[in-house]
Amino acid sequence: MKNIKIATHNKHFHPDDVFAAAALSILLREPLEIIRTRNPLIIKEADYVVDVGGEYDEEKNRFDHHQKGGAGIRENGIPYASFGLVWKKYGVSICGSEEIARIIDRKIVEPIDAEDSGVDIIKPVFEGIYPYSCFRVISSLNPTWKERDKDRNELFGKAAQFAKELILREIEIGHHFVEGREFVERAYHSAEDKRLIILDNEYSWKEVMNNYKEPLFVIEPNFEAGTWEIIAVRSDMHSFKNRKDMPASWGGKGEEELILETGVQDAFFCHRNLFIAAARSKEGAIRLAKMAIEK
């Protein structure tokens, strides 16, 4: 069987070309060859071209964005880079779901496209301190000036395999989120007091709870520990500010002190930053949560 050929540029690699190649490798599921070159004759013969070649034509599977005029801009102002162009055409096919493809686009694709296009999407709170982004992760896989003997194509292959596994994992997480969301929504709508939402599993609930104004705390089981946790709902799921803290007098207290403080006989932990507390039973967790709401 003839290998499918994906062409991208040689030399230093970035998240854009790495993740675009990784996404295509998930899509194709066939023997493929990644060719890193700037030779226009080789590029012309490739089945797919990403981040090189000066052409965007999705019908011909040409996904570059460096040509004059670029390759389009999203409604939010983030330009398309090659990963985004590949995802725009094939994301739904890769994920098997339009909703999951949209989740991955917001979570991974758009930040990578923005960074590759020189668009700032974050502002540091602490001067000189930035998140360790995909750009930094992938850049670290390139050889340094003291590693000229290393095969950059081999390193690109390792980076693309990492990106492939990450995309597949995020797709799986996305499917689990969508499936679990139904149970979280049901718990919210059936709650007698919507300030306290009680779950029967370790669902991903933060995004769902942020859609409602009432919830202050969520109770969920910790199956690994065999305990129950009370977790404060954040005012913004991307921040560390709680809608309501645990009582200040609980902060940092362990089992004996917390029992004396609360009267809950199986209470055993409250974080000093007041965003989580725990009890050994569901009933104990409910008692703690109700106390936290009223204090």
Would you kindly provide a written description of the structure presented here, covering whatever features stand out?
With 295 residues, the protein is of the alpha/beta class. The protein has 2 domains: 4-174, no CATH class; 191-294, no CATH class. It has helices at residues 15-28, 40-45, 82-95, 98-116, 134-139, 152-190, 206-209, 255-262, 282-294, and strands at 4-8, 32-36, 48-50, 56-57, 62-63, 196-198, 217-222, 227-232, 267-270, 276-279. α1 runs parallel beside α3, α3 (82-95) packs antiparallel against α4 (98-116) and α4 packs across α6. The N and C termini lie far apart (69 Å).
Quick summary of this structure?
The chain has helices spanning about 15-30, 40-45, 80-95, 100-115, 135-140, 150-190, 205-210, 255-260, 280-295; strands at about 5-10, 30-35, 50, 55, 60-65, 195-200, 215-220, 225-230, 265-270, 275-280.
Tally of alpha and pi helices: 9
Residue share in helix: 40-55%
H/E element string? EHEHEEEHHHHEHEEHEEH
Beta-strand percent range: 5-15%
Question: Rg to the nearest angstrom?
Answer: 24 Å
- Say how many strands there are: 10
Report, as a whole number of angstroms, the end-to-end distance: 69 Å
Q: Which helices and strands, and how do they pair?
A:
Elements: E1 4-8, H1 15-28, E2 32-36, H2 40-45, E3 48-50, E4 56-57, E5 62-63, H3 82-95, H4 98-116, H5 134-139, H6 152-190, E6 196-198, H7 206-209, E7 217-222, E8 227-232, H8 255-262, E9 267-270, E10 276-279, H9 282-294
